[in-house]
Structure formats: structure tokens, C-alpha cells
Fold these 2 entries.
Entry 1:
Amino acid sequence: MTIQQHPHVTDREAHFVGGGIASLAGAAFLVRDGNMPGENIHVYEKLDVVGGAMDGAGDPDEAYLIRGGRMFNYPAYECTWDLFETIPSLEDDSRSVKDVMDEFNEAHPSYAKTRLMREGERIDAGEYGLTRQHRQSIVRLLLTPEPRLGDTRIEEWFDESFLETNFWYVWATIFAFQPWHSVAEVRRYMYRFLQEFPRLHTMEGIDRTKYNQYDSMILPLRRWLEDRGVSFEYGHEVTDMDIVPSRTGRTVEQLYCETDSGTETVPVEPSDLVFVTNGSMTDGSSIGGMDEAPELNETGASWELWKSIAEDNPQFGNPSVFADNVTETKWESFTVTLHNTELFDHIVDFTNEEPGNGLVTYLGSNWLLSTVVAAQPHFANQPDDVKVFWGYALFPDREGNYVEKPMSECTGREILQELCYHLQCEERLPEILDDVTCIPVMMPFITAHFQPREPGDRPDVVPDGSHNLAFLGQYAEQPRDVVFTVEYSVRSAMTAVYEMLDLDQEVPPVSKHYREPGVIADTVRAAYR
């Protein structure tokens, strides 16, 4: 048998399609662990900024914007900490990004006192309200092998009463699960985060970054890569690639990029490496304004590329399972910038939650509104006299309780009016909204990774027979790990790099806290609260 020989890593090129955290992590692992020169690495991004879903932009004059906020868990994010323990922070290059996070979370520990509210009253979210039948359904789910679950939906596995429990409201609004999502993904989450089951309502196990994740994680990682010569090709949308089959497998030989100057081709040698982020949770996002509702897009560049290359390569997965039903995969978020801090102060007083404590969900809301008031400042360039908070809703197509139309049709001003109704301060409109800006964002694919799916719908990180192509991100299959996390993207990048370079290093295994007797005992006790 002939063994394929590759040139030395210094003579190979690497091409990353998409500039999200998976690609940035992959580039870092190539440099740090694979000893590939940075100048051999190219990242193609259609926008003029990298970071993907880990975003954060704006200033106090034009208002701030984050599409979402990533939460972290120190017992579970093995690959993420492996990476960011070695990336210097921007504030002090003698300390790592993780060092800064550790310090911040020690000073600002999460402890939600008011996780759920209804009609202005705090609900004891620690009383999960699970019945014997609910507990039996959870145990049966944990004992059922994932392949046997297939594309079963949550609402098909649990009865309707389960979806009205405090446990479900806490679970659904932390992780963004909907009743029609995959019960197999719920099973993975329960195993991955069983150690958090007893304290989901307080969010004590959740850790955060000092600022938004773009300022705290993406910027220092990008600087580290740039300092090592990695090239970032902004305004480059990869629309297709030549994938040539042979008796031994498939090889990428060329990329096609759309730029402002037209179509560019990028030749790829057989020994070069191509890493593709197939699908994106924030692809197709539409930004509204204080007096403008966002639009709903039904496609995006990452999805079109994935569909194009999967058409003739079934082992590349089935993107339509995730991308073809935006009604089930969309929701809407909003970022509020306040020069007049009256509303900010009212939220803190009304919820009895200090900034940085947690997530408040308003159960009386038809939209199922939630707000997050982060520790201030939330942006590195945010002045002391400007405040910022973020919110989202899982049911944007329902009519509001106060504003008589769906959230998806609302301007930023109308979203704030609806929020003020649930905060019981609507009588102070419009003065409470004076000098306040709310920017809504519609994200058509934000929970696409939770769609019911069958084995094979997500491709392996390195598909069988692939000579130089690997997949990264939320839609590359990684047994036992959970999507909608930074960890999933970083783990996919580490897996891809180590396998493609055949490195004699192991990817940190997914922790098995669910096997610890203390974790099991605490979980059982919590299930009876």
C-alpha cells in the first residue's frame, strides 16, 4: 500500500472559509500546535470584521449592538480554555484571556435571584415543578441511545404539562430550546451539563467575559494571529469550490470568491488544507433601528455554499434539514443603549438583580421576553455615564401584550414599549425612553442547529475520503458535545487541525461529570423540588 507523503508544514497553505471563532481557533491551533507559519494561513470573510456570532460593535454616539451573549462553564469548556490560556489579553499581555476572565468572574459571580417573573412578581424558579411522569421521561431519555431518537421533537417526547414547568422555562430560556427542537440535543445537554442541573435557576455555574465577547476574546485572538502573519481577506465571500473525486477520495483544488472586484479564484494544492464553516447561526441577520423593524432573510452565504458542495457529496451532510424552515429557527434580539439611564435603573430595582447577575424572563410575555443586564461597562469604549443591556424573545411572531402586533414587525421603540409594560412602567412613556436607542436584530438561523435531525445530517469534522477538507463549527458532527456553544466550535477546530496534520496530540475529552456520585445525588434531589 502506498502511503501518501505531504510536504513539510512550512510548505503547505491553509484556507479558512468564514471568519468566526471556529476559523480563528483553527488558525491558532495550526500555528501553536502544528508549527505552520502564520503567513501560510488565509481567512476568507465576506464581512469587514471577523468573529461571527461573537460580535460587539458600536459607540456611545451611534449606539451599541450585540446579536447575542455567550455564556461559559469552567467544568465543561475544555478546548476553549486550552486555547485562551495561551492567548494574551489586550489589557496586559503578561496575562492570558482566561486569567482576565477568572479575575472578572471572581469579582462578579453569577447568582440570579429573580430568574423568572410574572406580572411583576418574582417566581421561585428553584421549584422546578417536575412530576413523577416528567422525571420518568427524563430518565427514559437519558437511557435511550441517541441513534434511536432520530428526529424526534421535544414536544413528542414530553407531555404538554412539562412545557409549562418552571424547569422548562429556565431550561428553554438559558439554552434557547423550542418545543419543536430535537430531543436528541436535549439529551446531550443533560449529560454535558448535569453538574449544573441543581443550580440552573441561579446560574451560579455560568461564567462570563469582562466585556462583550468580541472585545474580550475575538480582538485578542485576532491580534495574536495578525502578529504571526495570518492574513485576513475581508470582503471575500466563498461561493463554491472545485472538489475532485478519485478512487481514494476527494480533494479540493480551487476556491471561488466573490469580491467587490468580481470573482476571484484561489488555487489549492492537494497538500494544502481547507477548513469550511458550513452554516452559521447569524448568517442572514437583519438589523433594524429605533424606528425601523428588521427584515426577515431566508438564506445566507454559508448555507448556499454548504448546499452547493453537498449536492454531489452526500457525506457532506444535509444542510436543508437545518436551513429550510426559518419559521422554526428564527428569533429576535435587541440591544439598548441608554444615555438617560432611568429605564436601566428601573430594571435593576424592579427585578432586584444587580448588573451582571443573570437572566430575567417575563413569563407573562406573549413573546417570552428575557433581558440580560451585564456588568457595566459591557464595551471597552463605553463611558461611565452610558449604560447598555440586551434582550431577546423566543416567540417573535406572536402579538404583544401591549403593542398589538408581532415583535417581528416592531421597531426598536415598540419593543421597548412592550418591555416597559412587563416592567410595569408604561405610564412613564415616552419620557423614560428619551435619549435611549434600541436596535433590534432578526436572526433567521439562530437555532437552526437544534432542528430535528438524523445521523449523517451533520458531516464529520473530517469526512471519510476527504484528503484536504474539514468542516468546522456548529454543523460538524462531534459525538457527545453540545451545539450553540463556543466550546463546540473550538473543539471542532482542534479536532480538524490535529487530524489533518496527524499530530501526536490528543483533543481534551468531553468531561463526564454525569458519572460523579455527588453530581447524580444533587441532580436527583433537585428533580424533586
Note: Residues 116-205+513-527 form one domain.
Entry 2:
Amino acid sequence: MRVEGIPASPGYAEGPLFDLDQPPASYKAKASAEEEQTALVSAIGKAVGRLAALVETADGDAAGILEFHIAMLEDDALSGPALAAIGSGQPADAAWRAVLDSEIAGYEASDQDYFRARAADLRDIRDQVLRALSEDNEAAAPPGAILYGEDIAPTRFLETDWSEGGGIALMRGSTASHVAMLARSRGVPMVVGLGDEAETLTGVALLDAERGAIVFSPSPAEIEAFRQSASSFADRLGAAKTFLTEPAVTKAGTAVRVQVNIAYPSDVDGIEIESCDGVGLMRTEFLFGKTLPDEETQYRAYRKVLEWAGGKPVTIRTVDAGGDKPVPGFTVEETNPFLGLRGIRLSLKRRDIFRVQIRALLRAAIHGNLKVMFPMIATPEEYSQAAALFAEEEAALAAQGVAHELPPLGIMVEVPSVALAPEDFADVAFFSIGSNDLTQYVMAAARDNAAVAHLNTVRHPAVLRLIAAIAAFGRERGIPVSLCGDAGGDPAAIPALLEAGLRDLSVAPAQLAMAKAAIADVRV
């Protein structure tokens, strides 16, 4: 039986199904409320210790996720109500589960996929403590297994040995989840949104995460066809690696710049600068985690990436908080955050926080080839106000005798108003197309909603027409235009993007080779 889903990380896996939804061992109640409270505090401590041990061996993305989990476990907002419930007579496991289940239900009820995706993190936190309470040692999946269930916890992903293959098949899940991000960066095949048909199935399965499907109890013919597709994918992946250290050029000899997208300064540690043309997008919202980062913290982060780039351009986006990226103490709760106070709108509203980032960027600019772009720009006035703040802070640093430099200032093209009237932004230094949001706003279809996934494609004529218009406007006015959304690293989308006139793409580091290989196969 073949069940269709949504591809979250491309690849193929053939192996036994491993049930992610096995219940934990039962908890043994204690003799008094005091002992129950002590047991919960101890279990939370054990869970924090387990996560802290994982942090020691984790890379940038994984470490950030784990630190987020630790911060939540140490937050009294979760443990306080549970301890109070224990004082009222509940056992530790029931009290903890009730508090976390209530939080999870709130996230799952959101109409925004980002918040629904974060429910997986809360379930992970819940189950980490429940396992510690019951002293349950989680069964490890056999090598090469396909892990399937409702969803998967980030810690489960990080503790799994993927060296012998395997994959992830989820009845729910999200392409925006932390695990999906980790799977893409590590090349682990993953499909989400399979629905309830997978609920009671066991045995060997075939996971096609390139197209987004899983085959249960496959026939010999299905196995043979699957292996041919998997072999073809592996061949393409292997062949693509030969392009990694070479400049990207089309069949017609047209040069294309290929840069990388990063989220953490440590992301560059695993990237050879020779393999890319610089950083097309450095997200800064991940620096805004448990606490708002001070000027020095930000300065060091930006300087590290600029020095790594060795003179190649590094485009840093000012904090794109809000929407799908809430930041404690900065963002506000909204009924429709994607259309609310996010990106540059929030930065201009909270200028005290924005000015700290501006000063850090101005100081870091002397260490490399920095470009700064503003997210979620919708009107020329927003750009003018943001640029004016840079001018003010530059003057202040000059008066103080602090070394600095004013970098070129550009904007994201992700709001249709910019794509439809680029002439209103002719004074910006550059455009960077955010294909994820542009497509979502043009098509009115969330890319992580399985029911409308067929609508959310950058290759829709309406989206491509806007991209082509921006590229043409940039050529006419001499304004550089790049694209830094997920479409830039999608081999299936790259031909259409180049035909639309783009010559500068920025992709996830794991997509570099395949993107360059796809470019080499285009006749433009």
C-alpha cells in the first residue's frame, strides 16, 4: 500500500518500521506529596542533564534546539503548576502530564504551522521527564529502521545512529519542525503528513522522501522500482559532489553565484569557503533566544562569519522576529502573526533593541564584506526609517571614535507590494527575494499545510512572473538581485528561477552540491 505525504528532507530509505509511539513504563507512586514533588524536581534535573550531555556533541542548529529545551525545563512556568498540582494530591507523573498536555493543546490549536510544529518540542520535554520519572530506558531503533508515528522528538532524532541509513515517516509532523531542519542538514530522508493510514502497519517499508510517499508491505515489483529510484538519487548525489568546489555555470556558459544560508555563527565551521560565493543570508533571530543578546554578543557573532568569509560577501538580515519566530521579551502574541508585527515592523516599533543590533553590525563591518538587509519590507517609508537609524548610529559611533563602517543596505522581497512596485525602492543597494514568504503570500497557501501544499509552489506562473519582474528591474537599474528562499536549493525549481532571470541563489549548505549540479544542466 502506498501512502502519499509531504517531503520534508529528500532521500530514500528501505527498512523495518519502528514505532515511535510506544508508551513509557508505568510510574510508581510515592508515599507523600513531598516525595512526589522531590521526584518531579529530580526527574526534571535528570532530563536537563541528559540534554546538556547532548549539547556537548551537537552542532549549531542542534545545540540551539537543545538549549531551548533546557530553558523550558528550567522555567518555573511549567514546573510551578505541576508542583502545585502535586500539593493538591496528584502524583508527579499525572501532574506533569496535565500541565504539558495543556500547553501542547494550545500550540496544536494554532492556525500557524510554526506553532503547531513547536508542539513536538513540548511533547519531547514532557516525555523526557516522564521517562526520567519511570526510570524508563527508551528502546533504540534498529540500524536502518524507518521511524514512524505521530511525530518525532528532536532528542530522539539526535540520539539515533543514522550512519547505516534509515528515515522518518510521520502521520502528522511538519516541514517547519526542528527535526525536519535537522534531517535536511544531515541528509536523513523524512516525509510528514501521511495521515492515519499508517497507524497500525508494521514490517518492512519503502520511504520515498524525494516525492513524498511511503510503501507498506511492498511487492517485489515495488521494491525493484524503488531501488532503481534510490540508486538514481544516489548517483545524482554522488555526481553532484564533483561540482561542489567548482564555480556554478550553466550549459550555455552563464555564471551563477551560489551562496549559503546560515542560522548560527557555528554553521560556517563545517563549510569550506571555496565551495560557495559567500553568505546570501545569515539569520539573526536565532541569536535572540532565551535572552535578548547584547551588542558585544552580536558583534562577535557577526565578526566570526565575516572573517570566515575572507572577503566574500556576507549578507546579514536584521532580526526577523515575529510571524513564525517568537522571541520572549520582544515579540507580541497576535491572532495572525504572519500578517502582524514582524520583521522590520517590529524592529521599528522596538528601536531600543534594533539600535543595539545596528551598532553591532556597524562595528562588525570593518572585518569583512558586509551587506545588511531588512526583512518584511512593505513600504518605502519602512526602508527609509531603518536606513535613517543606521545613519544615526554611525554618527554616534564616529563621535565616540569607535571603529565602524556603513555597509550597503538592501531589502527582502517577500511582500507582494514590493514585487509589484519595485520602482518605489530604486534607492536600495540590493534586493533579496524570500521565496518562502513571497509564494505563501501570493498563493494564500501555507507551504506546511498538506491540504493546500499543491498550491504553494514557487513555480506557479504568478510567482515566477513577480520574480522575473524583480530580476528585470534590477538589471535595468543596476541593482543586484538574489534569491535566498528554499526554492534556491530545489533542483526542480532552479531551471525556472534561472529562466526568470536570476543569477544569484543562496541555499542551505547541504544543498550546495545538488544546486550547482542542477545549474550545470540548465540551458540559459
Note: The chain has a mean pLDDT of 89.
